[in-house]
Amino acid sequence: MGHRVDDLLGTLRHQGERVTPARRAVIEALVAADGHLGAEDLVDRAQRSVPSVHRATIYRTLDTLERLGVVVHVHLGHGRAAYHLSDDVHQHLVCEVCGDVTEAPPRLFDAVARRLLQSDGFAMRPYHFAVVGECARCQDP
Asked: Would you say the pTM of this structure is higher than 0.90?
């Protein structure tokens, strides 16, 4: 985890940005995350690491990290936004009946990306998005 955190903080420095305690705490929380983290989850985790950091500072930090291309957010169906590091591929399958969210297989959209490139010259980057539908448990028999 430490090496990845250092690399991401190095990216900030390379872009001329400061490495603040809040930025470090948010990046550490995202690197350590197992699953989807909303803004409130990140506030809680960052404040455990740096108790003096204010909630508004965490929100500004998320905006800044997103502007710098380090963090992206995705809306999972009709739910809250989830934050991920930009180098993490997250394709989600969201059940609009029960709200279950699962990770799609990593290569699921490769054929679609190839077809779009061949037919339309469009280079799809399917890194962060949600496909909404019904999970197997919620479908009518």
From this structure: no
